[in-house]
Design goal:
With 316 residues, this protein is an alpha+beta fold. It has 5 helices and 15 strands. The model has no long low-confidence stretch (mean pLDDT 91).
């Protein structure tokens, strides 16, 4: 059909209302499961310290004769450990003009950017805690302090490749990966049994999407469940119970390195803050407003023998 000559259409018009939905869609994940699991503690200095100890090995020959004169047992000192409080921050800044303009999807531009930055900051902390990164003490002249990540602490209960070099377990160095291996149920059982023997009580497992999908092939899940009434097929291992009775909830975590699975006893892991999450005003030096969001804290792995790791895993 022909267009009528001189008909005034929307392509020529000036001043038509802009069609923008008054909402902002964000699907970026904001869950921080590991940080949420950590007990909360207070750090009093930039280096946070704690002690660990262990009981002597049980023996089956501990008998004494009646009337025995006792000599003093040899005692052992506790082990002093430490991690470094790292500073993580975000600094949104908005001009006075942008704050004054009417916006779609938010009222105050500054308030929106602060809320967004706080979510980003918590994701950064979650990632820092879970990494295979050694602590850095900083030097006061521009070198940032870094937190020793979770994997650098775990040495007692681990399943690693034969050519891997494990960390020493005090946060000072990293685990050096070996040849990648496919995740198996035997690896799960081995590490959980080692934790049980050590006295740990692992109740949570953290793993990325690829390894979580691999657990669906474990023998106990060999026949997926089909609920005809709801028309649902269940093919997931959400709680793993090993032969010793360790009952571990497997929690997908987008920020866990893809080549590891962590088994955690929540009683022995803590996020200790020197300065908890906070929002500060940045003094104005021009026509803008600025906020500083920061947290200064560290990971305290009370006793690494309570935890476990399956490492050096294939990721494809």
């Amino acid at each position: 059909m022909a267009v009528v000559t001189n008909s005034y259409d929307s392509y020529e018009a000036v001043g038509n209302w802009t069609d923008i939905e008054d909402v902002i869609y964000t699907i970026s994940p904001t869950e921080t499961p590991f940080l949420s699991t950590c007990k909360k503690g207070k750090a009093l200095n930039r280096v946070h310290q704690w002690q660990k100890d262990a009981l002597a090995t049980a023996v089956g020959t501990n008998y004494a004769a009646e009337g025995t004169t006792y000599a003093a047992d040899a005692l052992t000192a506790t082990t002093l450990l430490n991690n470094v409080c790292g500073i993580s921050d975000k600094s949104p800044q908005v001009t006075g003009s942008q704050e004054a303009i009417k916006h779609y999807g938010r009222g105050s531009e500054m308030s929106y950017q602060v809320k967004k930055a706080m979510k980003e900051l918590k994701r950064d902390v979650e990632t820092n805690l879970l990494q295979n990164v050694a602590k850095v003490t900083g030097d006061g002249t521009g070198t940032a302090r870094k937190i020793a990540g979770f994997q650098t602490w775990i040495v007692t209960n681990q399943s690693i490749a034969g050519d891997a070099t494990p960390a020493t377990g005090d946060g000072s160095d990293i685990h050096t990966d070996g040849t990648a291996r496919a995740l198996t149920e035997a690896m799960f059982e081995s590490v959980l049994a080692s934790q049980w023997t050590s006295g740990g009580n692992p109740t949570k497992g953290y793993l990325n999407a690829f390894q979580k999908r691999k657990t669906a092939t474990f023998s106990g899940n060999s026949t997926p469940y089909h609920d005809k009434a709801s028309k649902k097929v269940y093919n997931s291992v959400d709680v793993y119970i090993d032969p010793l009775g360790n009952e571990v909830r497997l929690i997908p975590n987008r920020f866990v390195p893809t080549d590891v699975v962590y088994f955690v006893d929540p009683e022995y892991v803590k996020f200790a803050t020197l300065r908890d999450f906070r929002v500060l005003d940045i003094p104005r030096q021009g026509d803008y407003m600025g906020k500083l969001l920061l947290v200064e804290g560290t990971l305290a792995v009370g006793n690494e023998a309570a935890h476990g790791v399956v490492a050096d895993l294939s990721t494809s």
